[in-house]
Design brief:
It is a single chain. With about 475 residues, the chain is an alpha+beta fold. It is about 50% helix and about 20% strand. The strands form four sheets. The protein has a five-stranded antiparallel sheet, with helices on both faces. Strands 9-11-12-14-13 form a five-stranded mixed sheet, covered by helices on one side. Helix 2 runs antiparallel to helix 5, helix 8 (about 315-335) packs parallel to helix 9 (about 355-370) and helix 9 runs antiparallel to helix 11.
């Protein structure tokens, strides 16, 4: 409990029991009383809020018994802080009481609240000193022991210059009563009023805090169910990824064998096969397309299952880029597209996973060729600070801002006049973005409808393979 130091408020000397001083205070004394009120209201409210935050910051939902304990701790903080501030008397909280032996059923008062209450929280237990003040306060202090029961009419009594109890009410009804029975009241009427104002202003944050705890009691069972369901869904998603990874391997193995034999037949010079060369072309292209789909699904499932390991090696960047341009050259020339390639003179070698870097750039180049009906597709490589920028650009169809937002969502495809059919699974860019992040990088997009697109693979420079550490992760500024 915090130690409080009350402001010294001047009071005229008067014998105890004499009439309170009603002489007006000068402005300085009024200001001192107002400052005392504001300071202690803030201190007690902060203690209440601190206690509530410690309750609400738990990582896991609490059981009802734990939540009852939270409410009890909060009530004890309130009575301790208020008693320390007032400096004398007894401060207590009484809660609705139910007869455990069922000797009688507590009736309801006209206000709808329980008529029998039990004193549950008292501060301080050893400070109930009787004095010669009013019989009402004397009698009430004598009964403010933990476990004592009070009737609602005891709490509703009020003497001419002091209210003995205040209701603590939430949206769910009456929670309890805050009882303040001073040993000695201030002599000055303004200071007595400041005490009353302080108690009134303490009751409100106390009721709000109890409302929050009650809300936890209502919501926590639902939260626990949601947490259980989330764990189940995460396990299902993990099993799905493992299933896709295993199944994709099983599909790809026989498919590779079939494609290998088709390629041998396609390359054969036998006259008997010449007439069937068109059929072999169809089989070969269809098999390659199917293999690409399986590879995308396999890679995505591996990344999601955290089973994809990068194989770091030193790559000669110009050679890699020229080999990629050669791979897409046939399709590009078939559409009458021009291909452009440019390099920063300072870029020669780069440390990355060669296979995955080729995969990312090939996906970007293939998309550029696919969505460009005429014009140019290009690849440029530039060194920007400690990052290498691989930029694939085209003069094709471009995209709207709405399409760019959905671009890296799995299985997302956009209708396009250039590509009449929904070709592919919509996984190429998703896989490429995930592979870029595994490298510590990202893919940036800049595009306008009918103005072409520009995809930039940004990767951090890394040390040589022998002393390579994990690349620094860079912020995602995709637009």
């Amino acid at each position: 409990m915090n130690q409080h130091s009350n402001l010294s408020v001047p009071q005229p000397s008067a014998p105890h029991g004499s009439a309170p001083d009603s002489a007006p205070l000068d402005p300085k004394e009024q200001l001192e009383i107002q400052l005392w009120l504001e300071r202690h209201c803030n201190q007690i409210s902060q203690q209440i809020n601190s206690q509530l935050l410690s309750c609400l910051s738990r990582d896991r939902p609490l059981h009802p018994e734990q939540q009852d304990m939270m409410a009890a701790e909060l009530f004890q903080v309130v009575v301790n802080e208020l008693r320390a501030t007032l400096g004398n008397g007894v401060v207590a909280i009484a809660l609705p009481w139910h007869d455990p032996d069922l000797r009688f059923q507590p009736a309801s008062s006209s206000s709808g609240s329980e008529t029998v209450f039990q004193v549950c929280h008292v501060a301080p237990p050893d400070s109930r000193r009787l004095s010669t003040d009013t019989p009402l306060l004397q009698g009430l202090r004598a009964r403010l022991s933990p476990g004592e029961t009070l009737l609602v009419q005891d709490l509703q009594q009020r003497q001419s210059d002091w209210q003995t109890a205040w209701q603590i009410k939430t949206s769910r009804g009456l929670v309890g009563w805050l009882i303040v029975a001073p040993t000695r009241l201030p002599d000055q009427a303004p200071m007595r009023q400041a005490w009353l104002d302080l108690i009134e202003r303490v009751v409100q944050p106390c009721a709000i805090a109890i409302s929050q705890i009650q809300l936890l009691q209502v919501e926590c069972p639902h939260c626990r169910k949601l947490e259980t369901r989330i764990r189940e869904l995460e396990k299902i998603n993990q099993l799905k990824s493992e299933f896709l990874a295993n199944t994709s391997h099983e599909i790809r193995t026989p498919l590779n064998s079939m494609l290998g034999f088709v390629q041998l037949l396609h390359q054969s010079q036998s006259s008997e096969l010449a007439a069937h060369r068109d059929y072999l072309n169809i089989i070969l292209s269809s098999g390659q397309y199917l293999l690409a789909l399986v590879n995308d699904i396999l890679d995505l499932s591996k990344v999601e299952a955290d089973r994809l390991d990068l194989q770091w090696e030193t790559i000669h960047v110009p050679d890699l880029c020229h080999s990629l341009i050669a791979l897409i050259a046939e399709k590009a020339h078939a559409k009458g597209l021009q291909l452009r390639i440019s390099f920063d003179p300072s870029v020669t070698t780069f440390v990355a996973d060669s296979l995955r870097l080729k995969q990312m750039l090939f996906n970007l180049l293939s998309n550029a060729v696919k969505f460009t009906p005429s014009g140019t597709v290009g690849l440029s490589v530039n060194l920007v600070g400690v990052f290498l920028h691989f930029t694939v650009w085209d003069t094709g169809a471009g995209m709207t801002k709405e399409q760019q937002v959905r671009l890296f969502r799995p299985y997302t495809q956009f209708p396009n006049e250039v590509v009449k059919t929904h070709e592919g699974t919509g996984l190429g860019l998703v896989v490429s973005q995930k592979l870029a992040r595994l490298h510590g990088g990202r893919i940036e997009v800049h595009s306008e409808l009918n103005q072409g697109s520009q995809f930039t693979l940004v990767l951090p420079l890394t040390p040589a393979v022998g002393d390579r550490q994990a690349p620094p992760e860079i912020p995602d500024t995709q637009t």
